[in-house]
């Protein structure tokens, strides 16, 4: 996962920091993001577990653990200093589930997503969508996709839809022409056209 260069960060330090939600290890310990990490993400995990009671917390933790080495290798070592195995696995699970549940709730009802405390108004929704696109606020795409397909084994029409759902989600909140964006090699952030990064 890419890091912001020192030159860019020094020029505008706050431009590269999430305001509401952290994804991955770079901003995990930021105090202003603690409420999201400790409360809202766990609430979304509970929603996921309620959707299919045949899969419990241990099931999803095992999915992450089975892919831990590959996921760790996606980040610079220094970004995970002081983070033990259990902490990393839990963080990855909560963050991937955050993305998955946001997409699922939005897909069921774009208006229904406003029931989430941190998405109650348009401004908050735009900020969260912007946070999810930040360069240092990314997750390994393969891990989200693996968890996504595991979560929706009982929904044949849903599995394999992650990429298209992500495109539609960001198009809706950021007024992006999704079809045009998919035809472009790069987007305005200067990154790959799959913002939640794919390996």
From TrEMBL:
Alphabetical list of Pfam families matching this protein: DUF247
InterPro entries xrefs: DUF247_pln
PANTHER family: BNAA09G04570D PROTEIN, BNAC04G53230D PROTEIN
Protein name, as recorded: Uncharacterized protein
